[in-house]
């Protein structure tokens, strides 16, 4: 289904306003209209000889960045696919210590805060601390009005993510968050929340907001 021209224009207005908010908080940010343009910018920003860590992100894979980086010759670390638990643990560590940590966000508030919820902690650790550049690719569907709305939006992403991983969280059964982590539920995937209020000292951040729906 074609996106109406009015929606495209509205997305650009909202996206560019969020870019300004991010820049006020110390992030480098830009707006692009499509996933294809986001992929082009990712390949421009990441040096051809850089190592790249890609954690659990549907968005980055949706735009074809993982395959494009590999085809170009970048060394890409990821923990998805068939591997032992020890291999997966080692892959997560390599992701976080790569030259570039390429990821998305569960939510981005219009005033420039970046929100992520994690079950194992590897993604939020890489976003807050790591070796080099943190590069976010964020679909317009991830934008939220404020912090409260952003946390709700981030938690809503747990349902499709749990289905993808065949984890029967309480929210998969109910269709909405029931705060199962507060009850000590072993299947909870909402165990660590990171809110980037500003760019962390000593880190470089670049956020690409895309005027299309991407990821969960």
Provide the descriptors you would attach to this structure in a database record.
single chain; 216 residues; alpha/beta; Rossmann fold; six-stranded parallel beta sheet; four-stranded mixed beta sheet; 9 helices; globular
Could you give a short description of this structure?
The chain is an alpha/beta fold. Helices cover 39% and strands 20% of the residues.
Specify the biggest β-sheet.
Answer: 6 strands, parallel
CATH class: Alpha Beta
Total helical elements? 9
Helix content: 25-40%
What is the CATH architecture annotation?
Answer: 3-Layer(aba) Sandwich
Low-confidence parts, pLDDT < 50 over ≥5 residues? none
Run of helices and strands:
HEHEHHEHEEEHEEHHHEE
In the sheet with the most strands, the strands line up as 1-10-7-4-2-3
Measured by DSSP, the beta-strand proportion falls in 15-25%
Please compute the radius of gyration using only Cα atoms.
17 Å
CA-CA gap between termini: 19 Å
How many extended strands?
10
- Whole-number count of domains: 1
